[in-house]
Request: fold
Amino acid sequence: MVMPKLRTLSLAHLPSDLAVHLALFEDLQNSRFLRKQLLEGNSDFEHAFVDARTILSEAHVLAAVFRAVNDMANGRMKSRNVHSEIVFAMNSNNNIAESFRKFGISDQTRKLLVIKIASADYAEAIAQQLEWAVEGRSLDFDDATLSLLSDMTEIRKTYKLNATPKSKAIDISEDGGQGQMDRNEERSELEVAILGLIALRGAT
Reply:
């Protein structure tokens, strides 16, 4: 087995003893097993398991992490731990069940983002656990890879954001450089809207 590509970030808004550990997978083969561990409350699987198709960018992920960690620090969590709170924080409303249905792992998930909040010292141990626990192909966690995995139509539907005239016209210039520029601009506009929705929900 190959050690997964775990990315560890130390962020200014996190307590100094905590870091964000992120691992991205495609061709997931054991989503049913992983979901079962979550439902059974297996502490060895206390991670945020997110359907990567619903993630637009690194900033999208980190906005939800900030919301969840901030709520944990201030005693405002509405779910059982900071990892379930991350999934909840991705939603634009306060419906916990809907959050897990839209963003969480399902038996059909094939593209998976794993998020773990823990000391940076645990990076190797986390990678070793994911090596045997997750049956999938490990990918780099970055905006370039996320852009290949994300389902823009599904993301717009999830956040109730209508397609812009620019996004509707992208197919016309699909093969040219302008088409790529248009897609990048569309993603940027969508990201701003999503970050605003996450922040607004957190303020309510």
The beta strands are 7-9, 19-26, 48-51, 112-118, 137-139. The CA atoms of residues 3 and 204 lie 41 Å apart.
